[in-house]
């Protein structure tokens, strides 16, 4: 019996020998996206990493494509090669995945639980959290139902978009705070003005969805910075290079944090500085 | 984001939106959720939730609301603002809670600045400022209709409409409320204290562009209140009909806000408001010699008795002592004896008050550490009254104010404020305030505030010249007043005149406070010392009139308010006050309760069902302990396109003691059912 087991181990070693000793070739990647600072910076950051990557200039030379944003992601999918979407709306990514694409995506936005952890940390008295949801929001009603923390989440579904004002007027008085997911189609500049002014007239703070809102007057947000997206992309690429298949789609795992200190101070929130907040969030399970 | 639109928890203490921890005062915020949880049907009732505040009905259907209460009836030491308009009336220094032109459902939030705030609002922001803020039409989405009916004659209704344009929004509401006042009967008698009040409140708001916002508010009220018989009158006659007070109010307010930049803005506001009030009553006067009804009662309205009264320095006792030796009075009495029938007459206490106010306020965030709120105000008050003033009196006042917030070091904020004013009655005054807030840790702040304020004598206190006219006299007096009474029109012999030398009342206040937030609760604690001096403590009515500044009151004590939210469905709110009051006038401590407090618990026990209960206690008001418990159950459901909400409320007195005075009996439960439909 013991002798039989030795034979089996020897056989496995022989079979595995080519992959153990062969060098994995660099991954040839083409980055699809509209020309601009973000694409240039993104490519630069990828090139600077020590990972064996070959950033090629044409789709034909590539093993796989990276699509930056919804449009580029959709375009990249048409080439019939594996595609990693970066900063892609969750709805779009899930739609094409359901159709069986050879793709994955780093969704635009951050995880609901992460935003709620920050909110809870800064506003310990808050209990009722309204979450505005549109058709392309990073979170779905199902994600809200899956939440198991101590906050109560109230979905505020906005469809069509011009009902945003009514939804706010109706729901805000019963809420303590408003949380916004990333949703490029819903939260444009006009909506930002409406949301922020309505909320603050009623003394309800707004969290999320990303840094431009915080600069406009939202209290704080976790967000996927360029650096966060590059780091997450490298993790996906390394995985793909080694295993020839994608990791599961998802949000960035280590988002950045931005706080509008003036607004946080106006609401007497528990906040001293960004580093302390980041540390507190990292301590959370 | 412009300064006016920036978030902030309170905007009253320093006239600018700011975090509660940095405000130079203790502040109690009662928002719409809390108002609804309280179950209150009248606005003044929710102020029971403010620590140290007295909010009770002292005269049947007339509420008295006072912070660190002193006198029971003449509560004239607190400023009340309704959307920035002073409700402190110039004629008799009153705040008329009954016919304030707003319904409780129109209110978005109430901010109560506890402690003097004359540095921000000028004279009469003496012990506190109650700032009532109505709902912004941009934040209302549905029309609504509600009806409410209950025991004790409770019958209320309200209809409200709202509309939104591209850059504008409006709202309007009409409401009516009525009840029968006290328990009936009291000592076998029906007490006259029913009331009926109708209000109109509306606003139109126009966002002209990103930099300019313009708003118009208009409204008014009509009131009909039965009033108690005046004991001074009841001693000398028999009422033929009880006093009835009828009033009407109207206001128009315009406001323009201009944003220069994200750190600098200007607000220009102006308003005019008008109030007309008359209390009519009918009396058959007793013959002063026989004590029985008869024509001799006319002597009280005779020219000769008036002259004798004036010759005796306005001393009623001395006047009657001198009657037997006054040939003129005796002759008049003889003439009256020749008439047939009782002397009966109707009289009226009338008062028309007008106020025109223009104010400009500039708010400027100079840099990250420095913010300045400054402005100027011009106000014209006019009061007309035949009975109180025998004519019309005006008061023109000019004001300048400034409040500077300095972020000295990161955890330390310094607030300096001052208000200079000059008016025709009281001359010049300056009210300063200084406060330091020290943020000892995130969400935990200590503060120290020193402030001084004045309450200037009102137009009546300064210019009183009372004359109660006999109108609608019985025959034969009506057809021959000159022959029978010696003059026409005929006036009651007692007349009161103010010396015009009264000084403003003063207050000096110091407080040490703490404001903090913990995981489940919010806590505000305040220790204070207040010295009130030069008080006009004595009665100043047409029957009793002792004008002097001899009163003083010292308050020292501690207050706390705590909000506890253990879970999403529960809210517990506690308030408490312990106050030591020392005074040289007993009347100044009538509603100064040594210990008072409230507990409110709201529980959303199902998605459509909510329950809230409240308990209020005060030991004591004029030696009577006050204890009441309220219970409210709410149920919401949809009916087609409409949303319906049912509310059942019971207010239960937990003891059998009256409120302040023995005739104020409210032991019977008050209960009502309400239905509101929104569509």
Describe this structure in words.
With 285 residues, chain A is α/β, with parallel strands linked by helices. Chain A folds into 2 domains: 24-107 and 226-243, Rossmann fold; 112-219 and 260-283, Rossmann fold. Chain A is 45% helix and 18% strand. Chain A has helices at residues 2-21, 37-48, 69-77, 90-98, 112-122, 141-146, 164-171, 189-201, 211-216, 226-243, 261-266, 274-283, and strands at residues 27-32, 53-55, 64-68, 83-88, 103-107, 128-133, 152-157, 177-179, 206-207, 220-223, 256-259. In chain A, the strands form 3 sheets. Chain A has a 5-stranded parallel sheet with strand order 2-1-3-4-5, sandwiched between helices. In chain A, strands 7-6-8-9 form a 4-stranded parallel sheet. In chain A, strands 10-11 form a two-stranded antiparallel ribbon. In chain A, helix 2 (37-48) links the parallel strand 1 (27-32) and strand 2 (53-55). Chain A is elongated. The model of chain A has no long low-confidence stretch (mean pLDDT 86). Chain B is mainly β and 679 residues long. Chain B has one domain (3-285, 347-498, 505-678): TonB-dependent receptor, beta-barrel domain (Maltoporin, Chain A), CATH 2.40.170. In chain B, the strands form 3 sheets. Chain B has a 22-stranded antiparallel beta barrel. In chain B, strands 1-6-7-4-5 form a 5-stranded mixed sheet. In chain B, strands 2-3 form a two-stranded antiparallel ribbon. In chain B, strand 23 (551-564) and strand 24 form a beta hairpin. In chain B, helix 4 (303-311) packs across helix 5 (316-322). The longest helix of chain B is centred in the middle third of the chain and has 11 residues, at 327-337. Chain B is globular, with a radius of gyration of 26 Å.
């Amino acid at each position: 019996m013991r002798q039989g087991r030795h034979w089996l181990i020897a056989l496995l070693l022989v079979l595995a020998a080519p992959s153990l000793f062969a060098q994995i070739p660099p991954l040839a990647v083409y980055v699809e996206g509209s020309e601009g600072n973000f694409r240039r910076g993104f490519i630069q950051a990828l090139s600077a990493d020590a990972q064996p990557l070959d950033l090629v200039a044409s789709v034909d030379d590539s093993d796989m494509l990276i699509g930056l944003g919804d449009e580029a992601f959709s375009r990249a999918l048409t080439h019939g090669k594996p595609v990693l979407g970066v900063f892609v709306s969750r709805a779009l990514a899930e739609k094409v995945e359901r159709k069986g694409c050879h793709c994955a995506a780093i969704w635009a936005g951050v995880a609901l639980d992460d935003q709620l952890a920050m909110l809870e940390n800064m506003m310990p008295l808050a209990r009722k959290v309204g979450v505005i949801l549109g058709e392309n929001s990073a979170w779905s009603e199902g994600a809200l139902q899956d939440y198991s923390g101590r906050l109560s989440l109230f979905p505020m579904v906005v469809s069509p978009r011009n009902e945003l004002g009514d939804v706010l007027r109706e729901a805000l008085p019963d809420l303590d705070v408003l949380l916004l997911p990333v949703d490029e189609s819903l939260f444009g500049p006009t909506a930002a003005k409406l949301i922020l002014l309505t909320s603050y007239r009623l003394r309800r703070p707004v969290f999320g969805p990303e840094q431009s809102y915080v600069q406009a007057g939202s209290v704080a947000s976790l967000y996927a910075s360029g650096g966060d997206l590059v780091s997450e992309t490298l993790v996906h690429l390394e995985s793909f290079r080694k295993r020839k298949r994608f990791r599961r789609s998802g949000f960035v795992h280590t988002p950045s944090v931005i706080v509008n200190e003036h607004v946080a101070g106006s609401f007497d929130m528990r906040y001293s500085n960004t580093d302390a907040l980041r540390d507190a969030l990292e301590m959370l399970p | 984001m412009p300064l006016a639109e920036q978030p902030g928890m309170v905007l009253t203490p320093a006239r600018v939106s700011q975090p509660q921890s940095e405000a130079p005062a203790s502040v109690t915020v009662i928002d719409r959720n809390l108002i609804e949880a309280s179950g209150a049907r009248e606005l003044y009732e929710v102020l029971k939730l403010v620590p140290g505040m007295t909010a009770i009905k002292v005269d049947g259907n007339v509420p008295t609301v006072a912070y660190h209460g002193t006198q029971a009836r003449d509560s004239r030491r607190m400023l009340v603002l309704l959307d920035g308009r002073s409700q402190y009336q110039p004629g008799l220094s009153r705040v008329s809670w009954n016919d304030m032109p707003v319904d409780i459902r129109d209110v978005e939030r109430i901010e109560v600045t506890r402690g003097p705030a004359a540095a921000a609002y000028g004279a009469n922001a003496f012990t506190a400022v109650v700032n009532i803020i109505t709902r912004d039409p941009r934040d209302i989405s549905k029309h609504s209709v509600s009806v409410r009916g209950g025991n004790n004659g409770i019958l209320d209704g309200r209809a409200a409409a709202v509309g939104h344009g591209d850059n504008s929004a409006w709202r309007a509401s009409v409401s009516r409320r009525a009840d029968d006042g006290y328990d009936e009967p009291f000592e076998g008698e029906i007490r006259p204290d029913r009331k009926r009040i109708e209000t109109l409140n509306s606003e139109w708001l126009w966002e002209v562009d990103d930099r300019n916002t313009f708003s118009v508010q208009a409204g008014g009220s009509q009131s009909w209140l039965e009033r108690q018989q005046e004991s001074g009158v009841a001693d000398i006659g028999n009422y033929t009909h009880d006093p009835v007070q009828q009033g009407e109010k109207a206001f128009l307010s315009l406001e323009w806000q201009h944003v220069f930049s994200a750190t600098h803005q200007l607000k220009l506001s102006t308003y005019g408001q008008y109030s007309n009030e008359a209390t009519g009553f009918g009396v058959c006067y007793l013959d002063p010699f026989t004590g029985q009804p008869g024509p001799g009662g006319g002597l009280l309205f005779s020219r000769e008795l008036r002259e004798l009264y004036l010759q005796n320095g306005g001393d009623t006792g001395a006047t009657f002592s001198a009657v037997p030796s006054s040939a003129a009075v005796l002759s008049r009495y003889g003439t009256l004896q020749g008439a047939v029938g009782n002397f009966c007459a109707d009289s009226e206490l009338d008062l028309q008050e007008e106020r025109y106010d223009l104010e400009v306020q500039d708010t400027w965030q100079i840099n990250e550490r420095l913010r300045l709120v400054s402005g100027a105000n011009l106000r014209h008050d006019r009061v007309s009254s035949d009975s109180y003033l025998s004519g019309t009196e005006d008061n023109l006042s000019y004001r300048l104010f400034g409040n500077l917030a300095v972020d000295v070091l990161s955890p330390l904020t310094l607030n300096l404020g001052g208000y200079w004013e000059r008016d025709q009655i009281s001359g010049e005054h300056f009210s300063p305030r200084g406060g330091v807030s020290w943020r000892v840790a995130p969400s935990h702040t200590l503060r120290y505030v020193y402030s001084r304020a004045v309450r200037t004598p009102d137009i009546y206190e300064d210019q009183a010249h009372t004359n109660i006219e006999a109108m609608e006299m019985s025959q034969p007096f009506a057809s021959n007043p000159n022959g029978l009474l010696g003059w026409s029109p005929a006036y009651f012999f007692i007349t009161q005149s103010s010396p015009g030398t009264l000084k403003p009342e003063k207050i000096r206040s110091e407080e040490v406070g703490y404001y903090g937030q913990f995981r489940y609760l919010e806590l505000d604690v305040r220790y204070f010392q207040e010295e009130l001096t030069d008080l006009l403590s004595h009665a100043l009515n047409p029957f009793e009139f002792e004008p002097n500044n001899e009163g003083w009151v010292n308050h020292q004590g501690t207050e706390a308010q705590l909000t506890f939210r253990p879970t999403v469905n529960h809210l517990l709110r506690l308030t408490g006050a312990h106050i030591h009051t020392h005074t040289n006038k007993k009347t100044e401590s009538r509603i100064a309760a040594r210990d008072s407090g409230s507990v409110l618990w709201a529980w959303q026990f199902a998605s459509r069902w909510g329950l809230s209960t409240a308990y209020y206690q005060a030991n004591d008001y004029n030696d009577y302990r006050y204890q009441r418990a309220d219970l409210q159950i709410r149920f919401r459901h949809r009916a087609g396109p409409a949303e319906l909400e049912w509310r059942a409320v019971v207010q239960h007195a937990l003891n059998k003691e009256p409120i302040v005075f023995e005739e104020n009996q409210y032991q019977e439960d008050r209960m009502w059912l309400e239905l509101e439909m929104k569509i």
